[in-house]
Design a protein that fits this description.
22% of the residues lie in helices and 26% in strands. The chain is an alpha/beta fold. It has a single domain, classed as Metallo-beta-lactamase, Chain A (4-Layer Sandwich). The longest helix is centred in the middle third of the chain and has 10 residues. The N and C termini lie close together (6 Å).
Length: 248
């Protein structure tokens, strides 16, 4: 398999003979409002055109539909009949946008020879968690392929820990920019990312959702420095740049 990071949580994942595209956030740099007042969003360029980001997609996988995961440009360039794996919470909103081939996952679904198991996320805590609403990650499995767990927008919750222990994924995709909302962490930070490396010493951890939104608190270089300072072995943590391909 191979994973190409486009930007933020947008990835092109070649898996079991299929091309999966995740969370299409495809607006041009600095064309969306700021969250914190530090910068317009997105804070980085796409490495390709929006059309190229989704070209050839067999299945789209949506962790949730916040605007930094499924924006108006992403909605425009996707074919309305493409199969979309989503959380049940988002089905009606997606139908309202004209998408017709929705595959809401309550627990598990098989599509195109690939099994998707939905793992609810915890997009913050306290009042912020209620404000953020439902988010999901997905464990992805197929014969002859590594087990992949894409966490989505979540902190390192008890539910995530349970799923890591139950599935023992070979590859873990983390959202690791340490984004905050109202001073509350809403995705994983450097410490939680390295904790996953410790929990799964034989797995590859790939940190995405980096250097793309202005409510992030950790850069790629800061995450790498933290990992090195805490003894993360070489080859365990990948922090790809926009457009970079990781082959596994």
């Amino acid at each position: 398999m191979e994973i190409q990071l486009v930007r933020n949580a947008t990835m092109r994942i070649r898996y079991a003979g299929r091309l999966l595209v995740t969370d299409p956030y495809l607006a041009a740099k600095h064309t969306r409002p700021s969250v914190t007042g530090k910068s317009l969003n997105p804070t980085s360029d796409l490495p390709c055109t929006p059309e190229e980001a989704v070209a050839g997609a067999d299945i789209v996988v949506l962790s949730h539909i916040h605007s930094d995961h499924f924006d108006q440009v992403g909605q425009r360039v996707l074919q309305r009949g493409l199969p979309i794996i989503c959380q049940p919470h988002d089905e009606n909103a997606l139908r309202g946008k004209g998408f017709t081939n929705l595959q809401p996952v309550d627990s598990m679904i098989s599509l195109g020879g690939i099994k998707f198991t939905r793992i609810p996320g915890m997009h913050g805590s306290g009042e912020v968690l209620r404000e953020m609403g439902e988010t999901s990650g997905f464990v992805i499995e197929a014969a002859g392929e590594p087990i992949v767990y894409w966490l989505g927008d979540t902190i390192l919750s008890d539910g995530v820990r349970e799923a890591l222990g139950r599935f023992r994924p070979d590859v873990v995709l983390t959202h690791s920019c340490g984004a905050v909302w109202k001073a509350t962490p809403i995705v994983m930070n450097a410490e939680e990312t390295i904790e996953i490396c410790r929990l799964l010493p034989l797995s590859k951890v790939i940190a995405v959702h980096m250097d793309a939104v202005d409510h992030a608190t950790i850069t790629r270089s800061e995450l790498r420095a933290y990992a090195d300072a805490h003894g993360t072995p070489p080859g365990r943590l990948f922090i790809p740049e926009n457009g970079e391909v990781v082959k596994l």
